[in-house]
TrEMBL record:
InterPro entries noted in UniProt: Ac_CoA_lig (IPR011904), ACAS_N (IPR032387), AMP-bd_C (IPR025110), AMP-bd_C_sf (IPR045851), AMP-binding_CS (IPR020845), AMP-dep_synth/lig_dom (IPR000873), ANL_N_sf (IPR042099)
Chain residues that bind Mg(2+): V553, V559
Family: Belongs to the ATP-dependent AMP-binding enzyme family.
Protein name: Acetyl-coenzyme A synthetase
Cofactor(s), by name: Mg(2+)
Keywords carried by this UniProt record: Acetylation, ATP-binding, Ligase, Magnesium, Metal-binding, Nucleotide-binding
Superkingdom in the source lineage: Bacteria
Catalytic activity, EC: 6.2.1.1
Segments forming domain Acetyl-coenzyme A synthetase N-terminal: 36-91
EC top class named in words: ligase
Length: 664
């Protein structure tokens, strides 16, 4: 029995429940909770049989698999191992000879507003041509290719072309610095880099090619023999003879046909670097078969995709969301999708709304940070409010990347979705390959701020430090109990780190997500409470605190020590706050401001602008225990502006706290 006070509490917290309309349920692929529960029961009764059925129905296999799951080398799980397929053939060739071949695959809208469309047939021809270009450069099955590309059709072409020839791509987000790019090219041992001369964002031309030049000039990238440059703007860039060529010239010389290279289901489709709790980014390695299955299936389940839909995921291809829900999922599902090069606030903060109206978008998937910034913009300028656009084409909304606060959820629901569109709040990670916990639009009653229930076959649970289940209502550690097809396979080149990071011994072989969560007492709905490791989530971008600390101390002429923590932020979810000890005296006033600025720019150059601390505070030391451990808990309190009421008796140097709390 639940204590009465708890019951009252939970009604207060969860009094707004939004069930799907009868019409939505009737038309949905997974219809009602009965439909959802039937799939869950199928998975529970015969886990492997469930996945095998779905893999046969949703993936085109060149050679069928005979074994579904191989657990003999856990946690290095293998799915559909003896099956053979090609990811690009599953996204493109599959549609040839069907009515989808002449359907628009991509509606591309450039930063400046120009629109380009390609059909599935046209996209296949371009992907094949570029696959032939890669082959002509000597790129072979199993080789790694780094892509440093803007959000363009060409970005997707490059990814698909790699998949077509069995090369493993590693996309590096176009906002990362030359140093971050260098690190990734080196770690992946890339044989080629595909980039663009420039990218356009918010009316500005931003360099990409010169950053590739800088990265390659840092040395140790001898494996990278060719650089292929997409000419996005007319501006000339330096081209290195014998190494650099233009994408359009190379493609013009190639055939529009290229037979797909069939690979084993476990063949690495891509490696995508993400932040972890140590300084070095992790190369998350994904498979071909299991990954593709989930990218396709979650399009059908989570987004209830219909042939007539116009799908728009606003994520960049440099992140996992842009992999699964731009480059692979929509194409494997035969959708028409919008790809947008620019930013939501250019030329005005109504860009998303006007684009939804213009392209008759039906499913819109974006991040809470974007929503929060557009709420702010609409509050101060009524001319950019979504009510100025005709958003009646929309039928489903999605949210991804960070928790969505109930207020932002309600605004999105009312002002964008017209109180008619279910919001799917999708919880997942780079490592999970696709959605894990999310409502289904034609089934799950929605509760603002909750990602609700795991998808069928996904065994998420909340446990304590020893792996014991905790009761609903108690917070704990989010785990996944059983392996699933689209899970991370390893960390590129570092299997030990993979095991240690995701399958710590005390958790009984469960996958450790790195997030805290709690389930509601009434419905058992999941709510993600945030990372439990040293990873920050700033505007939905993952940043390791250690990564930023390493960048700061790398400025070794002035910085002695640094500690980085997160602080809640209304707009970006979390903001980065750095506490810095200088080699010289503690600066004050304008000196402090100038130094803080210098360090922010330094971090921007070392990692990328997204990693710049919002605030830097200087002190003569950091709060440490007597054994020398930095007390981050206290720093988090100071960053939030909390008064120091915690016990500081174990501190070596308590007066430091006052100093850090004072400086601004
Ligand atoms: C967070 C992005 C709450 C979480 C797909 C996770 C979320 C990290 C949600 C992964 C959500 C993602 N609600 N938190 N709906 N989606 N997160 O690897 O902390 O860039 O661990 O993958 O984002 O970030 P990543």
């Amino acid at each position: 029995m639940t204590a009465p006070s708890n019951a009252i509490q939970s009604t207060l917290v969860e009094n707004r429940v939004f069930p799907p309309s009868d019409a939505t349920v009737a038309a949905a692929r997974v219809a009602g909770m009965a439909g959802y529960e039937a799939l869950c029961a199928e998975a529970e009764n015969d886990y492997e049989g469930f996945w095998a059925r779905l893999a046969r129905e949703n993936v085109v296999w060149n050679k069928p698999f005979t074994q579904t799951l191989d657990q003999s080398d856990a946690p290095f799980f293998k799915w559909f191992q003896d099956g053979e397929l090609n990811a690009s053939a599953n996204c493109l060739d599959k549609h040839i000879g069907t009515p989808t071949e002449n359907k628009t695959a991509i509606i591309f809208e450039a930063d400046g507003g120009e629109v380009t469309k390609v059909t599935y047939k046209e996209l296949l021809a371009k992907v094949s041509q570029f696959a032939n270009v890669l082959k002509s450069k000597g790129v072979q099955k199993g080789d790694r290719v780094v892509l440093y590309m803007p959000m363009t059709i060409e970005g997707v072409i490059a990814m698909q072309a790699c998949a077509r020839i069995g090369a493993t791509h590693s996309v590096v987000f176009g906002g990362f610095s030359s140093k971050a790019l260098h690190e990734r090219i080196q770690d992946a041992g890339a044989v080629a880099v595909v980039t663009a001369n420039y990218q356009m964002r918010g009316g500005k031309e931003l360099p990409l090619k010169s950053i590739v030049d800088e990265a390659l000039a840092m040395g140790g990238c001898d494996s990278a023999k060719s650089v292929i440059v997409f000419q996005r703007t007319p501006t000339a860039v330096n081209m290195v003879a014998g190494r650099d060529t233009f994408m359009h010239e190379e493609m013009a010389a190639q055939s529009t046909e290229c037979a797909p290279e069939f690979v084993g289901a476990e063949h690495p489709l891509f490696v995508l670097y993400t932040s972890g709790s140590t300084g070095k980014p992790k190369g998350v390695q994904h498979s071909t078969g299991g990954y593709l299955l989930w990218a396709k299936l979650t399009m059908d389940w989570t987004f209830d995709l219909k042939d007539s839909d116009v799908f728009w995921c606003t994520a960049d291809i440099g992140w996992i969301t842009g992999h699964s829900y731009v480059a692979y999922g929509p194409l494997a599902a035969g959708a028409t999708q919008i790809i947008f090069e620019g930013v939501p606030t250019f030329p005005k903060a109504d860009r998303f709304w006007t684009m939804i109206e213009k392209h008759k978008c039906t499913i819109f998937y974006t991040a809470p940070t974007a929503i929060r910034s557009l709420i702010k913009a609409a509050d101060s300028d009524a001319s950019v409010h979504p009510d100025r656009s005709d958003l009646s084409s929309l039928r489903i909304l999605g949210s991804v990347g960070e928790p969505i606060n109930p207020e932002a959820w309600m605004w999105y629901y009312k002002n964008v979705g017209g109180e008619r569109c279910p919001i799917v709040d999708t919880f997942w990670q780079t490592e999970t390959g696709g959605h894990m916990i999310t409502p289904l639009p034609g089934a799950t009653p929605l509760v603002p701020g909750s990602c609700t229930l795991p998808l069928p076959g996904i065994t998420t649970a909340i446990v304590d430090e020893t792996g014991q289940d905790v009761p609903n209502g108690s917070g704990g550690i989010l785990v996944v109990k059983k392996p699933w097809p689209s899970m991370i396979r390893t960390i590129w080149g570092d299997p030990e780190r993979f095991k240690k990071s995701y399958f710590p011994e005390e958790l009984k072989g469960y996958y450790l997500a790195g997030d805290g969560a709690v389930r509601s007492e009434d419905r058992g709905y999941f709510r993600i409470t945030g990372r439990i490791d040293d990873v920050l989530n700033v505007s939905g971008h993952r940043m390791g605190t250690m990564e930023i600390e390493s960048a700061l101390v790398a400025k070794s002429d002035i910085v002695a020590e640094a500690a980085v923590v997160g602080r809640p932020d209304d707009l970006t979810g979390e903001a980065i706050v750095a506490f810095v000890v200088l080699k010289g005296p503690v600066p004050t006033g304008d000196d402090a401001k100038a130094l803080a600025n210098e360090l922010r720019n330094w971090v921007g150059k070392e990692i990328g602008p997204i990693a710049k601390p919002k605030e830097i505070r200087f002190g003569e030391n950091l709060p440490k225990t007597r054994s020398g451990k930095i007390m981050r808990r206290l720093l988090r309190g100071i960053a939030k502006g909390e008064t120091l009421t915690q016990d500081t008796s174990t501190l070596e140097n308590p007066h430091i706290l006052e100093q850090l709390a004072r400086t601004n």
